[in-house]
């Protein structure tokens, strides 16, 4: 059954750029745009900035080292407030991250809308010119010269009709496991610096007559607090593009975390007084759409330290696939490499840039660059490139690459060639 509708959608505003999704990539993009003087709208479906960092309780802050730009700013300010360090010397306090990001958005004159859900992309002849979204005020359109898709799932690009890859040859069952992070309090003093708790959890599961669902669980204390986050729950073979499947995965994750908490407090004397606080507001999805771009980052690129003239991010984090086959992680080292601007540009489309884990890459390559430090750097570069293109008034197929420093002393460039007006 199909319902046909005729809708009149009011235009909220005309912007230089609209950013969809306020996670690490979206925050990086919006700040870069706002600081460049672009009239920028940032929409977010939850009630805070930070995405995986904050609504997802994601710690540690992976691959922040040697990065300047917005990543460097955030780490420096968190350190200054005493809210960074702790576990592996790269964890942070979620509420301070929210506050710092909000202040930076205000300073950059970025218009932020919380509790606002992306609906569809406005596109004509493969030229994206805005989005439609909905919130408590109803349905509205926002028109823009450039739209940055920072949804993680590539929702904006997919709505525009951009081709994408999923799992292995389209089989979502091969996507990496999903995780529902959860907070615990009253951590035993001897474990206040955190630990890999497999032996303790596995013993507790065996005592309960159950099988543990994941073999590499971590307890990660949050700096400046008496609580921590647990990375443990793992849900496999759920379709990341289906709301019903995501709901079922979340429910399974909640059951897993309750089981883990109850078994640990019942069968491990050290954790007898551990307190369960809450699960994260958003399910952690490691893998979904990978948009087909002007260039696809490959396994060879990350293994051989690929360099590109249009580089926008410098990645050092090793690949990390959470696989069903061993209920653990398949990890391998990489040689520090660049991500090119072309991987952020959906093939044959104009007016749209993607940033974060949904860029164009193979699934093994994505298992390296999907971490938050690299997503934020990609977002910042995407915002810089869009601003350069807008300010330069680029038309046609001209090439104009401006260089700037983005990390490790490497000169990174933002290339305007493939995101032109017109």
What does this structure look like?
The protein is of the alpha+beta class and 422 residues long. It contains 9 helices and 24 strands. The chain has helices at 24-35, 69-80, 94-107, 155-160, 198-207, 243-267, 299-304, 363-369, 372-392, and strands at residues 11-20, 40-43, 84-85, 91-92, 111-113, 117-124, 127-135, 138-149, 164-166, 178-179, 182-185, 195-196, 218-221, 227-231, 275-279, 284-285, 289-291, 311-315, 319-323, 328-332, 337-340, 352-354, 401-407, 410-415. Strands 1, 2, 5, 6, 7, 8 and 22 form a 7-stranded mixed β-sheet that branches. Strands 12-13-14-11-15 form a 5-stranded antiparallel β-sheet, covered by helices on one side. Residues 394-422 have low confidence and may be disordered.
Number of H/I helices:
9
- Low-confidence residue ranges: 394-422
- For the record, give the distance between the C-alpha atoms at the N and C termini, rounded to a whole number: 39 Å
Radius of gyration, whole Å: 21 Å
Q: Helix/strand-derived class?
A: alpha+beta
Residue share in helix:
25-40%
Globally, the shape reads globular
Total beta-strand segments: 24
Largest sheet: 7 strands, mixed
